[in-house]
Amino acid sequence: MRFRSLKKILWKEEAVLPVILVIGKTIAYYVLMNIVLPELMNIGSPGYIFLRLLGLFLFSNIMSNMAMCMLVDPTVNPKQLIPQFELRKNSNDWHECRKCEILAPPRSHHCRICQVCVLARDHHCYFTACCIGHRNYRFFFYLVFYTFFASLISFIVSSIFWFVLQGGSYEFFEIHLIWIEIGIPVGKFAFVVLYILMLLVLVVSAWELYNRWPIIRYGATYFEASSKNFLYDQGMRSNLEIFFGQRMHWTWISAFIPSQLQHDGIHWRKTDGSKGDWTI
Predict the structure, then answer these.
(1) Is 19 buried (19+), middle (13-18) or exposed (0-12) by CB count in 10 A?
(2) Which ranges of 91-175 would DSSP assign to H, the alpha helix?
């Protein structure tokens, strides 16, 4: 597993959005765990402990999968490619990338933003400031999955807290201006903004999960699934192993659980898309 240098991650204009997202998620986690949850349940009760642990599990997985998604390098490494004259002789699926000046493997595509070819490129994700491809798709999927799950629970809990317990009105705090003796209640406004953002994240992550299902199911990329081009479908189990690796049953626990990918992301075999017969 190759990692990207921090210089390539941090010193980019689009890295501002991931930083904002990390700050926003941290604030939302703090508000939900330290303000909303104690109002819903007694501190120390079984329900309180369960939701506290669940919140910690979701938050840690969102952050760790986002970090790994950004750190793992999904790009083509020319040093790992076999001599180009052999590729031309054995396969017609390889294509020349004039910008990278390499003979690129099948399913790899050049990203105009990253300025490099990406193995089994799915798309460029602005929320992580990197391309999603063969090596980091696992982390991207769990990032979307746990974001959806966390935003769903947060939205439900916040709705109960705000509309049932507080009757639609609640002030978290006041900002007191030193130079004038008045307090400006901004708690309600802040909570409304947070509530709307949670709903927005819920809708976006749900839509992303909906779009990811045919990709996972048929072992495709986003563009292949959009055109219903399932030429690389190896069956659901094999497809899952390609995305999540040999220890795919344990990868949901943490982004830091190693799971070796069985496919190199370079040499792909085709099926006819219906009968499952392999063709070279």
Answers:
(1) exposed
(2) 137-159
